[in-house]
Every structure is written in C-alpha cells, then in structure tokens.
TrEMBL record:
Residues 368-453 form the X8 domain. GO terms for molecular function: glucan endo-1,3-beta-D-glucosidase activity. Pfam families: Glyco_hydro_17, X8. Residues 1-31 form the signal peptide. One of its GO terms (biological process) is defense response. Belongs to the glycosyl hydrolase 17 family. Its EC number is 3.2.1.39. It comes from Riccia fluitans. It is found in: Cell membrane. Keywords: Cell membrane, Disulfide bond, Glycoprotein, Glycosidase, GPI-anchor, Hydrolase, Lipoprotein, Membrane, Plant defense, Signal, Transmembrane, Transmembrane helix. This is glucan endo-1,3-beta-D-glucosidase.
Length: 486
C-alpha cells in the first residue's frame, strides 16, 4: 500500500517508514552531569522498576538513594544508570568499630548486585555533622576507612567511591565564597581526616547545597533571583574579584575555598542534593511550582553547558543530584518538605524539566498537546503520518532514525510527535487534532528524554488553511477506497 504515497509525496515518506520498520537502535544521548535523588519516604510511590523506567525515559544516568534497599539496587541492574547508595546513620558506629561489620555490610549490600548494578559510590551517612546524629560524627571517617578496606579486598575500590554528604553547616563562613572556611570545632578531628581520606582515594567531597534555604533564612540578604539563577547583576567576591551570577556556584566555591585553606586542592565537590520545593504552607511563599521549575531547569542548563564550572573552577563541570524524583508524603512538616519532587507519587510530573538542558527558563503554564490515541490502528496512523509529514508540512525530522524522538520506534509515538507538530503549527485549533479520530488532545506534556513535544500559547493566525483539513479528509477517503479495493 505504501507505493501510492511514494508516487504522490516523494521520498520523505518512504524514508520515514523504512526507518520505522527496520531499525530499533536506541539513541545514546544522556543528560551527563545531572543526577537525581530517589527518596522513598512515602507510602504511595510507583515501584522501583517504574522509577528506573522514568529515569531512563528522562535521560537521567545517575541516581542517589538514601539506603541500600536490595529491591531498589536490584531494579537498577542493567539500567545504564549508576547508583549511589547510602549507609544509614545508625549503622555507622558499628562499621567504624569493627572491620567485620563493614565486610558484612559490603557482603550483604554490594557484592550480590555488582557489576549488574553499576554502584558509583557509597555514602557513609547523610548530613551527620551538626544534626541529631552529631554524636556519631567522629565515627564517620573510621567507617569510611573500613568500608574502603572491604571494597579493596573485593577489588571494587577503584569503581566505587566512599563518600559522606555534608550540609553547608560544616562551613562557619561561606560569604564571600573566597572566605569559605570549615567550622573550627570539627576541622581538626573530622574534616581534615575526611579530606585526607578523600584525597588519597580519589573520592569527591559531597555537599548538599540548598539555595532555597539560604533564601528562606535571609530573604532580605539573598535576592530571590540570585538563588534562582536569574539575577541580572550577580555578586562580585570582594577578595577574589570573581563574578557570581548565582548562589549555587557561590556555595560550591565556598567549599573549594575552605578545602584550599586546609591545603587540599585536588578534591572535587559533588553536589549530593539540591532542589526547590514546588509547594509550601502559607508561610512558605517561595515554595511554588514556578520557582521550583525555574531553579531546577536553570541548574540543569548551567550544569550541562559546555565549559561550565564555577568561577573558582571554570571548565570543571559540576556534578549534582537534584532532590528529588518524587514527592514524599511521609516527610515531616513543613509542607515544603513533602513537595521537592519533580513527579507526583502517581508518576505524573509536577512540572516539566528537560534533563538535557535547554535554553532559558520555561515558565509553567497550561499547555495543550495533540497525541495519537493508543487505541488507533497502525494502518490509520500510517495514513495520517503520510499526510502530516508530507502535504501537512509538519517537521518530522525528530522521528527519523537518529532523531531524539525516534525511540520508542512505534506508530503511536511517531504519530504523536507529528500530530503535535501539525497541531501547534495550526495554532492549536482542535480541528487540527483529529486525523479521522486517531488523535487526542492532552494537557499532560508527552515530552520524554531529549524528545521535546513543542507547545505554545494561543496567538492569532493559522498556518494551515481549513482546506488542509478537507484535503486530509479527501486523502483518507481515497486511501480507504484503494485499500478496500486491494
Ligand atoms: C547517639 O545518639 C543517639 C540518639 O540520641 C543514640 O541512640 C546513640 O546510641 C548515640 N550514639 C553514640 C555512639 O553515642
Ligand atoms: C598550607 O601550606 C602552606 C604552605 O606550604 C603552609 O604555610 C600552611 O601552614 C599550610 N596550612 C595548613 C592548614 O596545613
Ligand atoms: C490552568 O488549569 C488549571 C486547572 O485546569 C486552572 O485552575 C488554572 O486556572 C489554569 N491556569 C491558567 C493560567 O489558565
Ligand atoms: C483521550 O483523552 C481523554 C481526555 O484526556 C482521555 O480520557 C482518554 O483516555 C484518551 N484516550 C486515548 C485512547 O488515549
Ligand atoms: C502496531 O505497531 C506496533 C509498533 O509500532 C506493534 O508493536 C504492534 O504489534 C502493531 N499492531 C498491530 C495490530 O499490528
Ligand atoms: C473526527 O473525525 C471523525 C472521523 O472522521 C469524525 O467523525 C468526528 O466528527 C471528528 N471530530 C471532530 C471533533 O471534528
């Protein structure tokens, strides 16, 4: 049946279908330095396998979990995603005091799962210092050493790094960034041993950086735009004369400065958590969807930008984990705590984020997309595709082999992309989203990974004359006639 279209519409259509039918190689683009924290302090989340599928669809290649749950670690096997796992604060003392306990932890939580699951690092505790686990602070580094010894005994010490995430509170001074310095009460007993260990083992210093809290704690002193990466002026560091356009860079550099003050200059900073809540209680005005989307998208754009880095370390791309994948309903008050997720617990997105980085900031608004119905027949979708990508003049480049929307290589996916392009170019006229009843309007962004389904706000003017729709109907009638005749 394809021959009819080849005669009528030239080469584009046959190329499209050949590629649809004979190839299935997945695109290999990835979001690089942007990871996500997969917290599970909730009783209503999708399964770990669904979380893995979601991360893969979004192009996320690094994930952090806050425990060492066997089911979760197993779910990430052969996923192409590297996983950072965590030793809970309660296990640190035992591991620090007894090498056998460390060996058992590695035997139970790591050895059964590698190399199928790519474990990138083991975090010894979470923000132990200056928290309610502060009394175990002095056990962190001994525990890190014992875990390292266990990994070494299993030849895993070069692939799995041993780290320990800290909050900004380990610095007693972080402004201006060049004056960053560790709190003197922990410097000699904990920080220097930790930095020595990290330096010797080639592991990064893990920092939880939350410009949100810096802003909330000092809204007079910290401009919101500076926290959201949208400041037009930024801040000049009066010592170094370096220009800071955002608080995230300033926090990272304050840690570099604090390490340099102790003569450690070869330890990279990895941001083990950062994020912004999309909702808060009535006193948490800055916690809203628009700020959350602005912060996280600008963060991603900054991280994936070529030659990105911080003013103190230009060209050294910062690696960061966004907190968090899902909203977590069991987190304690305030409301913002439960609303750091990019996704709701039902798997729908709180706001769109492009993990590959984009240009500028997307502002949250109600948008409408046109997609193929998943109950439409392949034949009818093919007919519609022939029209849309041919005389309909939709831009179908993205669904050609090698294009960002080629995978999954299905009629529904390819038709959805093409239908939407046509629909948007038709100024979102609902009549341009029918295609013999094979299409459906939706308010849910169908974008995934690097495949972006464009959507725009209504404006005047139609790119397609109504004749285009009549033309399509006539074409369909003709095709059906010919098909029936065959
Ligand atoms: C630290 O404090 C916690 C909670 O108060 C307690 O359960 C734990 O035994 C203490 N650990 C040490 C090593 O003192
Ligand atoms: C760092 O190195 C310099 C130069 O070698 C030395 O003067 C200084 O005391 C060192 N500082 C620390 C904290 O070790
Ligand atoms: C977006 O949609 C929601 C729910 O349908 C509605 O409450 C809200 O007013 C809409 N916002 C805009 C800007 O149209
Ligand atoms: C079409 O869209 C409606 C409204 O969004 C939805 O309820 C329905 O499930 C969709 N149908 C198909 C087949 O995708
Ligand atoms: C329709 O095409 C999809 C691939 O796009 C294929 O998986 C499915 O089996 C086809 N359905 C029928 C009924 O041929
Ligand atoms: C969509 O197309 C079908 C079949 O051509 C037609 O019956 C239906 O009325 C159309 N719907 C709209 C809203 O135009």
């Amino acid at each position: 049946m394809g021959s009819i279209f080849r005669h009528r519409f030239g080469m584009l259509v046959p190329l499209l279908f050949l590629s649809m039918m004979f190839s299935s190689s997945p695109s290999s683009v990835s979001a690089g330095s942007v990871g996500i924290c997969y917290g599970r302090n909730a009783n209503n989340l999708p399964t770990p396998l669904q979380a893995v599928a979601l991360c893969r669809a979004k192009g996320i290649t690094k994930v952090r979990i806050f425990d060492a749950d066997p089911g979760v670690i197993q779910s990430f096997s052969d996923s192409g995603i590297s996983l950072s796992i965590t030793i809970s604060n309660g296990d640190i003392t035992g591991i620090a005091l007894d090498q056998n306990v460390a060996d058992k932890w590695i035997g139970d939580n790591v050895l059964p799962y590698v190399p199928a699951t790519s474990i990138s690092s083991i975090a010894v505790g979470t923000e132990v210092i200056f928290t309610n686990a502060a009394n175990i602070s002095s056990f962190i580094v001994p525990a890190m050493r014992n875990i390292f010894m266990s990994l070494k005994a299993n030849n895993l010490d070069s692939s799995i790094k041993v780290v320990s995430p800290n909050s900004m509170s380990v610095l007693s001074k972080s402004y201006p960034p060049s004056a960053g310095i560790f709190d003197p009460t922990i410097t000699y007993n904990i920080i220097i041993p930790m930095l020595s260990f990290l330096s010797q083992t080639g592991a990064p210093f893990m920092l939880n950086s939350y410009p949100y809290y810096a802003y909330v704690n000092d809204p007079q002193g910290v401009p919101l735009e500076y926290a959201l990466f949208t400041s037009k002026v930024g801040v000049i560091d009066s010592n170094s004369q370096l220009h800071y356009t955002n608080l995230f860079d300033a926090q990272v550099d304050a840690v570099y400065a604090a390490m340099a003050a102790l003569n450690f200059s070869n330890i990279p900073v990895v941001v083990s958590e950062t994020g912004w809540p999309s909702k808060g209680d009535s006193s948490e005005k800055a916690a809203n969807t628009q700020n959350a989307q602005t912060y996280n998208q600008n963060l991603i754009n900054e991280l994936v930008r070529d030659q990105a880095g911080t003013p103190m370390r230009p060209g050294t791309q910062v690696e960061a984990y966004i907190f968090a994948l899902y909203n977590e309903n069991l987190k304690p008050d305030p409301e913002s705590e439960r609303n750091f997720g990019i996704y709701y617990a039902d798997g729908t997105e709180v706001y769109p984020l492009n993990f590959y980085g984009g240009t500028g900031t997307v502002v949250m608004q109600n948008r409408t997309w046109c997609v193929a119905r998943n109950d439409a027949s392949n034949g009818s979708l093919q007919i519609a595709l022939d029209f849309v990508c041919g005389p309909g003049h939709a831009n179908c480049d993205a669904i050609q082999e090698g294009g960002p929307c080629y995978e999954p290589n299905t009629y529904v996916n390819h038709a959805s992309y093409a239908f939407n392009d046509y629909f948007q170019k038709s100024n979102m006229d609902p009549r341009a989203c029918n295609f013999s009843g094979t299409a459906n309007l939706t308010q849910r962004d169908p974008s995934y990974g690097s495949c972006i389904f464009y959507a725009r706000l209504p404006s005047s003017g139609y790119l397609h004359s109504p004749q285009a729709y009549y033309g399509f109907s006539a074409l369909v009638a003709l095709v059906l006639l010919l098909l029936l005749r065959d």
